[in-house]
């Protein structure tokens, strides 16, 4: 995607073939900066602090974190230590474990002298696979968007959190169909949930849509049901941090409420995800998916830009009030119209997923 006249991915390898560069998403939309990851510890910190975020991008960053570790020390012990340290950074998104397990299995089976080169090659392969998957998700999802048009007005799409190119290596998941359909000439308008408490919708999704010149309007998180009641939403498309083999979807907190409102108002509710986000080990998302609980300060305080343009943080709540910050919720499969994947659209069921991915759900 393009920023300030230059094409960017969210993560890329330095010309030295070792260090890794990422876009620092904590400064967006007001400050665009990049960060250099020179060690496994740097990669873990970038994931932990949400310098990088979004399930697919976390997975790729974790893969490069293992590569950085292997460059310094390719021993079995160092690989295992890197795997454990990176896995502990974020508990909910399954892409991280998927990528780390893939790197560990490859490296431990290889000669020690070959491990660093193999690690970097595999991390780059995972990144390219993610781009290809997101492009395919965009094509399949765009077909649904074109079919949603029923009059001469714009196609109104509601999304939640950020599942665009900033959450992946490029293109995105939930926003890939929007970008693809818009480039194909579809008249699209996006309702952008602010996505409290970190406001990834108001900051990141809006930032992306501005860059792509896609018409959009930022709304408070609780406005979605009202919009649907008044016929102002044609379909909902969200991303996923983990989807069970039975089609339960774990995504940013507040997604479940949007699914309930969509169900009550007959609005199609789609989830866009690559196969790396499917956790084939579990079926019951409410029971089995670990939900990350982040710092209460994200609820009690808010960051923004002051009148002088400088970044500021202000307190929203009275002193002494307790707060809790659940990062994700789970939408049961019965409220999901369909899953948009790199191999097509399927029902949010085990049969639907196995029909598209018979090679993965064994």
TrEMBL record:
Keyword list, A-Z: Amino-acid biosynthesis, Isomerase, Methionine biosynthesis
MF terms in GO: S-methyl-5-thioribose-1-phosphate isomerase activity
Catalytic reactions of this protein: 5-deoxy-alpha-D-ribose 1-phosphate = 5-deoxy-D-ribulose 1-phosphate; 5-(methylsulfanyl)-alpha-D-ribose 1-phosphate = 5-(methylsulfanyl)-D-ribulose 1-phosphate
Enzyme class: isomerase
Cited SUPFAM superfamilies: NagB/RpiA/CoA transferase-like (SSF100950)
Site feature location: Transition state stabilizer: 161
Coiled coil: none
HAMAP family tied to this protein: Salvage_MtnA
NCBIfam families, alphabetized: eIF-2B_rel, PRK05720.1, salvage_mtnA
Protein name: Methylthioribose-1-phosphate isomerase
Gene source species: Methylocystis hirsuta
Gene responsible for this protein: mtnA
